Amino acid sequence: MTTTTKGLALEFSLSSYVYELPTERIARRPCAERSASRLLVLDRNPEGEGDAQAEDRRFADLPEILSRRFPRGGLLVANNSRVFPARIFGRRKSGGRVELLLLTPLPLLEVREGEGGQDGQNRWQSAEAEGLVRTAKRMKQGEAAEFDAPLRVVLLERGDYGRCRLRLEWQGELAEILEDIGHMPLPPYLEREDDQADRERYQTTYAAAHKAGSVAAPTAGLHFTPQVRAELAAKGFGWAEVTLYVGYGTFSPVRETDIRAHEMHAEHVEVPEQTARAIREAKASGLPVICVGTTSARSLEGMHKALGTVSAFAGDTRIYITPGYKFQVVDALLTNFHLPESSLLIMVSALAGREKIMAAYAVALDLEYRFFSYGDAMLIV
Fold first, then answer.
1. pLDDT for 214-223, tens place per residue?
2. What structural domains does the chain harbor?
3. Beta strands in the chain (DSSP E)
4. What is the rounded distance in angstroms from the CA atom of residue 83 to the CA atom of residue 208?
5. pLDDT at 162
6. pLDDT reading at 366 higher than 60
7. pLDDT at 4 over 60
């Protein structure tokens, strides 16, 4: 079917990705049990003529839902990155308070050894990183902040939108220091401080300890439990993992009236050969690749854009998926409900169609679904 000029204008107009969300529908806390979240199933291609169909279910029903839709099974691909306590509070030499959100994933830091004891524990180490710095009075270049740990941070250069280039200097293990003094970087729209419960719940059950580097959770994965995964495996669904270190840019709204003019933020992606092989085998067998979250989808489509095929990949991606994009790897998507005017809402609209997505969001609002990171989920098949 040919899209009209008017239709194209709607697809690429930022105002087409706005919806009214009552503040009480933002999930401030997670569901008591992970798999007890609700799940809106959006069938893009129902049998016969008519619009997409949305079905109200529970996340615990996912194995049954997928096996009904894909009786031969399929492959789920999930993001195993770990959220680290990247928000830390320190002080300037003057005594003023400093708040720092570290943006560079820990595994990507280029660490330099400095002076110190021979045991390695007292040796100072350093690395350059990116971060957001907040102070009452503007910090100067070269100024340092101290923390309640063997850690100091020197401001090297200011960039756009509050981002700064920093030099971290520490003794011991940086990951342990951040675990001790850091706070979980909850999304701004939650409008609350993190607590001990967030250490466990703002994290997937399969997050890898050596992949600590995300400043936001791959939220579609928050609903999974070992039991749900076991039931999926029993029904013939494989499991593979990628790593995408979710950056702060995931919360940045699209500001351009024509969404095509938006400049996408870069995120580091790792697709291991084991995962690439599982995807190739699924495709060769005619089985669907079902991405757990937009970060997994971005990883796979970014890999394909970079290489032109399905293969192992490690590097940054700036892929920006808008309506008209032809998905090369992803066949179905499990995702949460996204912010208005966000690149993620635009991405899911590219997969299912803008009108179908906005209609499904309207259904979710009517059914009193909970929205955003700690909210309910949607399955697009």
1. 999 999 999 9
2. 5-82+199-380 (3.40.1780.10), 86-182 (2.40.10.240)
3. 38-43, 53-58, 74-79, 82-83, 87-92, 97-102, 112-113, 124-135, 144-146, 151-158, 163-171, 212-214, 237-244, 267-271, 289-292, 313-317, 332-336, 377-380
4. 10
5. 78
6. yes
7. no
